[in-house]
Design a protein that fits this description.
Blueprint: H1 2-52, H2 58-77, H3 90-105, H4 116-125, H5 127-147, H6 155-212, E1 216-220, E2 226-229, H7 231-236, E3 251-253, H8 267-272, E4 277-285, E5 291-302, E6 308-317, H9 319-355, H10 361-387, E7 402-405, H11 406-423, E8 427-432, E9 437-440, H12 442-458, E10 465-472, E11 476-483, H13 490-493, H14 513-523, E12 527-533, E13 537-545
Helix pairs in contact: 1-2, 1-6, 2-3, 3-4, 3-5, 4-5, 4-6, 5-6, 9-10, 11-12, 12-14
């Protein structure tokens, strides 16, 4: 409200300033213009009358003409914009009296028509001037007629005052209309000035904000020319060839940092061609070997008519982020690689132990369970290595789908994980089909089920339940794992299948389990989804094709 009041006060001040300026300028211009025309007319009449000798009383005529001329001199000499507006009326009143003298000097020449000049002038000054013109001029005329040598009143005696009143009325009406139009123009000019001032302030504010951010913003015209760029672009321009001029010393690479990128496929060139994209990463190497990673986002702009208005290109330096991600992947890969050697040795000795004939059955069962868990652990280590590779499709290489009974895989996973569930007093139940066929790699599917069951127990409450439901319709087979745990927040559900992502309230982990499970199911042409409610529980659903030619809806 304060801003609206300030804006209204600003508009009013600008309007009043424009109105006063116009009024002062008009007062000087009106005084000079009106009086000069009358002075010129009287001067011509005086010269012509003296030259032809038709003036009856040249001396008296000269006195009247002198009064008009003196009024003209006053109109030019006096700064009327600096005195009270009422003083302007002095000159037309002097003109009325001077014209009266001219009328007395030569009553037969129709000099009374000159009263039209001061009448129009007084009418434009305002209501008081209009009243003076309509009363003073007819009264003076009738007084002159009455004091003349032959005081006779006729139709002509009434006509001149009526003409003067008509001229005054027309001038007064025109002046009122002009004043109203001028007031409207003043208001519009004030609004325009305020709008322009606000636009300038807004543009300055936007420019200041854009110049303080650490990412570059480029505004492209329809033809691709740069019409605006913030300060950050100046710091990044050496890594953006083609923005202004070509930079031949810069080598460009795609997101992997190794595949060359041509100048025609650079995001700047694509944005100029009218393409839109988001988070396109380009690596550049300068002549000194420094590598820079920039991410580009382009959006087209549409004007109020729906036509193309150019584009906005946002550029961000992600070199530090990319280097950190690469260092993390290298570390994970290194650690995973170091784990494989001792784990392989452990599995080898477990297999040797199983080859002994004198092992008690109970111990053999324990060793066999340990061997199975160790093999799955080795598979997880291999998956971690796979997740850190450049190609996200590399999981498909280790998937060998065939017909498998999903119920058997689920029961085997439950048997292996039951000790962990017993520690938390979590009850596991299975419902649904007794037999459900799916086209899947049994080892990989077991890995997914193990991970889902492990999470369902880990994030459950003590004494909770985990319910597994298996269903098939002949085309697709689904496995639902429902728990009564803490649930997943809506903001986290969008990212649970991303690598290394962990919810803020999650238990310790590496954030790879669900990402690898999602990759495995996707490699089977299946789908892994989640629904959850905080404080109630979560449900993960695995959907797989039941036949080799079936397709799972995306």
């Amino acid at each position: 409200m304060a801003r609206m009041a300030s804006a209204g006060a600003t508009v009013a001040a600008l309007r009043e300033r424009a109105r006063l300026s116009l009024r002062f300028d008009d007062r000087d211009r009106l005084a000079a213009g009106s009086q000069l025309v009358l002075s010129g007319t009287v001067a011509v009449l005086f010269v012509a009358g003296v030259a032809t000798g038709i003036l009856a009383r040249p001396g008296l005529f000269a006195i009247g003409a002198l009064g008009v001329v003196l009024g003209g001199i006053a109109a030019l000499a006096v700064p009327w914009s600096r005195v009270s507006p009422g003083w302007v009326m002095v000159i037309p009143i002097i003109d009325i009296l001077s014209i009266g003298v001219l009328r007395l000097a030569d009553p037969e020449r129709g000099l009374g028509l000159l009263w039209a000049f001061p009448a129009m002038w007084l009418a434009t000054i305002g209501t008081i001037g209009f009243v003076v013109a309509c009363t003073a001029i007819p009264a003076l005329y009738w007084v002159i007629v009455a004091l003349g040598p032959s005081p006779t009143f006729s139709f002509a005696t009434l006509l001149l005052p009526l003409v003067i009143i008509a001229i005054s009325s027309a001038g007064y009406s025109s002046a009122r209309r002009f004043a109203a139009q001028r007031h409207l123009l003043d208001a519009q000019a004030a609004r325009l000035a305020f709008a322009r001032s606000a636009a300038v302030r807004q543009e300055q504010l936007v420019t200041e904000v854009l110049d303080t951010v650490d990412f570059g913003v480029v505004r492209l015209a329809v033809g691709g020319d740069v019409v605006y760029e913030n300060d950050a672009i100046g710091r990044l321009s050496s890594s953006i060839p083609g923005l202004h001029v070509a930079v031949p010393t810069v080598s460009l690479f795609e997101e992997d940092g190794e595949t060359g990128l041509s100048a025609a496929n650079h995001p700047v060139a694509r944005a100029r061609r009218g393409e839109t994209f988001e988070d396109e990463v380009v690596w550049s190497t300068d002549a000194e070997g420094r590598r820079t990673a920039l991410t580009f986002t382009a959006r087209r702009l549409i004007d109020h008519r729906g036509a193309d208005s150019g584009a906005v290109l946002v550029v961000r330096d992600v070199t530090t982020e990319r280097e950190a991600l690469r260092a993390r992947d290298d570390l994970v890969a290194s650690v995973s690689h170091e784990l494989r050697t001792p784990l392989t040795s452990v599995l080898g000795y477990l297999e040797l132990a199983l080859d002994e004939d004198d092992i008690p059955p109970r111990a053999r069962r324990y060793v066999d369970t340990a061997l199975g868990s160790g093999e799955r652990l080795l598979t997880i280590v291999a998956d971690i290595l796979t997740a850190t590779r450049k190609s996200r499709q590399s999981v498909e290489i280790t998937v060998h789908p065939r017909e498998v009974d999903v119920v058997e895989v689920v029961r085997a996973s439950i048997i292996a994980i039951r000790p962990f569930a017993d520690e938390r007093v979590v009850r596991i139940t299975v419902s649904g089909e007794r037999r459900a066929i799916a086209i899947a790699d049994p080892g990989r599917l077991r890995q997914v089920i193990d991970n889902l069951l492990s999470n369902a127990i880990k994030f459950n409450r003590d004494g909770g339940t985990v319910e597994i439901t298996v269903h098939t319709d002949g085309e697709t087979t689904s496995i639902e794992v429902h728990d009564t745990g803490i649930g997943i927040d809506a903001s986290d559900r969008e990212h649970v299948f991303e690598r290394f992502y962990r919810a803020s309230d999650a238990a310790p982990g590496n954030g790879l389990g669900l990402a690898i499970s999602s990759d495995i199911i996707r490699a089977h042409d299946g789908r892994l989804t989640v629904s959850s409610e905080v404080g109630v529980g979560s449900t993960f659903t695995v959907t797989l094709p039941a036949t080799s030619d079936a397709r799972v809806p995306r």
